[in-house]
Amino acid sequence: MFSGASPDTTTYRVVVSLPAIQCGNPQDRTGTVAILVPMAKSHDHILDVARAQVGPSLIPGLSLLAAHGNDVFATGLGQLGHGRGPVRRDSIFRIASTTKPITASVILSLITEGHLALNDDVTTWLPELSSLRVLRRPNGALDDTVASNRAITVRDLLTFTNGFGMATQMFTDPTPWPIFVASEVDLSLATLGPPNPNVQPDPDTWIARLGTLPLIAQPGARFLYNTGATILGVLAARITGSSFSDALRTRIFAPAGMTDTGFFTRSTDRLATAYRSSPDGLVVYDEADGVYSRPPTFEDGGAGLVSTVDDLYSFSRFLRRYGRGTIDPALIAQMTSDQLTPAQKVDGAFGDAFFVERSWGYCVAVGNDGSWGWDGGLGSSFWVQPARDVTVIVLTQRVWDSPDLPRAHQEIREAAMEVFS
Questions:
Q1: Rounded to whole angstroms, what are the CA distances from 283 to 81, 258, 388, 412?
Q2: Could you give the C-alpha distances from 234 to 108, 158, 210, in angstroms and in order?
Q3: Which residues contact 9 (CB under 8 A, 6 or more apart)?
């Protein structure tokens, strides 16, 4: 800086480093010169937007990570719970449905290893799902069925076209669907609603109970949410002859460097208290020493994991590097691109509006702009935009009030895109 000049407060980003000799200095054959461009806004903009979302009656605390290439900004804000310590970068959160793409990745690794194929009939490993019947009407009586046209395949499970899962109509109809009552009340499958590890039976019992129910739609016919990923967890355990958590640990967590992800945590001092809305404000949904502080009977591939922003960032980089050789690149390309036919999107689980700007790959949403990721109703969002080399992860302990991405997550994502534009 020249003497007397005003200090330069502009924030710059390194876009490339070139050998000094290419930058007009023929005497320097070893050094490098960084090429800088001014950033429209700094990381402080992300921080300011996030701070505005945190408060006792809003979100008690959150952890976020926003990355553009090697430029990574991560922080924690607020408290782990009312009267508890601060949220830090390594705080642990329940990620609910953000579990789904992680479940898909272990199945893709098993396909890469040759244990199964996308079009394989899953009854080879899950005989409980043989000879299933299909409801004549989704909201009809359980005994009003027709024969299934074909068996469920691995691809069906990955794309949520396996014929069983959530649909918006089952929550909006004035009369509960019999299939919902049977699944959630009578059999305690906890697959057509929020995650509930407290009630789910062991994996063998769970899949046996599911096999007693008719499908809601013919295999391959319609996108129905959630249950496909839960079945995939049972499938991975059957194929590997281990627990689902062991399959994840050896094939995904260890190679990706995900040290704080699992179906429970003993580090309850780092686990945020979960809250939900009520007429009287936020009330506790799950304490730090509650459901996720002990091993579950059923390891749910649809919504069971806890994690950190850094572990999820490691997972995103793991996939973008093709599983460091453990997953066929062609399978990851399929996972993060549209895998549904137009017919499968009609009357889909979330209604027609869901598919205006996005579709579905393998256990993950894919945007029309090439982005991919998925969120969790207990307070998480995970989004990757490969074309811009941007990743944004937001973890909170507030249960969503609706199926729509909460404002806090959306505004932090938008702020990150403004900074990294």
A1: 11, 31, 39, 24
A2: 15, 13, 12
A3: none
CA angle, corner 13, sides to 10 and 14, nearest 5?
135
Q: Which residue in this structure is represented by tokens 């689902």? A: 244
- The Cα–Cα gap between 27 and 21 comes to 7
Among 263, 260, 275, 266, CA closest to 293: 266
Adjacent-strand bridge partners of 385 = 390
Q: What is the dihedral of CA 347, 348, 354, 358, to 10 degrees?
A: -120
Buried b (16+ CB within 10 A) or exposed e, 176-202: ebbbbebbbeebbbbbbeebbbeebbe
What type of residue is 137?
A: R
- The percent of the chain in helix, strand and coil, each rounded to the nearest 5, is 35, 20, 45
The dihedral through the CA atoms of 117, 191, 183, 166 has a sign that is: negative
pLDDT in tens, 178-215: 999 999 999 999 999 999 999 999 999 999 999 999 99
Q: In DSSP terms, which residues pair with 225 in a beta bridge? A: 166
Nearest to 151 by CA among 177, 181, 120, 173: 120
| Per-residue pLDDT tens over the stretch 26-46 | 454 445 545 454 555 799 999
- Which tokens is 249 given? 């640990």
Helix (H, G, I), strand (E, B) or coil at 209: helix
